[in-house]
Write a structure and sequence with these properties.
alpha/beta; single chain; Rossmann fold; 8 helices; 21% strand; four-stranded mixed β-sheet
Length: 196
């Protein structure tokens, strides 16, 4: 029995979605609602720090070797190798840190990571899938960001189709057609889950 299972305190709120669906905007909004008592789970990664990213705020930055050692030592709740030696994951100590503060953990995480957390903690986890109104709309949103090449956008759109197929595996689906109503829907779902 791992330490994390002995310390069941808060709830786990998972938000997963294809890139460009608006999940990060929704998570940021929910974090600003003090009555929800949420704390953001900071992921670990083996990728290089970008621009103005901050250690311990944006990510916990590890070398690929450190990451692999932590995998061997079963220190992750979930992890994934996105590209060769490019890892992302959730450290068990991160969830323990947040629960020790008496807070609920909120994740902005990819689909497979979100489902792994739900499988490990089925009772404590609310897994919400944020759906774009359509693949076409998703492509428009990704283009508006002006942060990626056409090839990269097409790659994300192709991946989004596969991710959308997993939405029935989540507890709830929020369709982000209109942001205000998506924020309201997400707030209601989280608020209701935390009360139980």
């Amino acid at each position: 029995m791992s330490q994390i299972q002995d310390k069941k305190k808060g709830k786990l709120i998972v938000f997963s979605a294809p890139s460009g669906s608006g999940k990060t905007t929704i998570v940021r909004y929910l974090l600003q609602q003090p009555e929800l008592n949420l704390e953001f789970s900071i992921s670990a990664t083996s990728r290089e720090k970008r621009g103005i990213e901050v250690e311990g705020k944006d990510y916990y930055y590890l070398s690929a070797k450190e990451f692999k050692n932590k995998i061997k030592n079963d220190e992750f709740l979930e992890w994934e190798e996105v590209y060769r030696d490019n890892f992302y994951g959730t450290l068990k100590t991160e969830v323990e840190r947040i629960w020790a503060l008496g807070k609920n953990v909120i994740f902005d995480i990819d689909v497979s990571g979100g489902l792994r957390i739900k499988r490990k903690f089925p009772e404590e986890t609310l897994a919400i899938f944020v759906k774009p109104p359509s693949i076409d709309e998703l492509k428009i949103r990704l283009k508006k960001r002006k942060t990626e090449s056409e090839d990269k956008i097409n790659m994300r759109v192709a991946k989004a189709s596969a991710e959308l197929a997993t939405s029935p595996l989540f507890d709830k689906v929020v369709v982000n057609n209109e942001l205000t109503s998506a924020l309201d829907d997400a707030y209601e779902l989280v608020s209701e889950f935390i009360k139980n």
